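Fig. S4 source data, part A: sequence.
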Amino acid sequence: QVQLVESGGGSVQAGGSLRLSCAASGRTFRMYVMGWFRQAPGKEREFVGTITWSGGSTYYGDSVKGRFTISRDNAKNTVYLQMNSLKPEDTAVYYCAAAMRNSRYSNDMDYWGKGTLVTVSS
């Protein structure tokens, strides 16, 4: 079992920045990738980005490219999502996820956090 706990959500004005954290615990040794998804009111869950643990390779969804950055700290079993130039449409619950394979699909994720709310005001 793997447990994922997100933190860092909150309210920010458009154009501002926010940094989310996701701490993993439990049997994490077989995790291949960790990433972020988000879900806004009335919308389906959307892929944000992933990072591989071994090489640190990243992949981003089109809507956040150039604005969001994923990083990791292997010693802390923690991934981060640095969000810059935030827009009102970024408002959503952000979920941390982990998988034992390289994928950007939510159905392929093996573990999920409970989410943290990010609200961007205009």
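Fig. S4 source data, part B ends here. The two ends are 40 Å apart (CA to CA).
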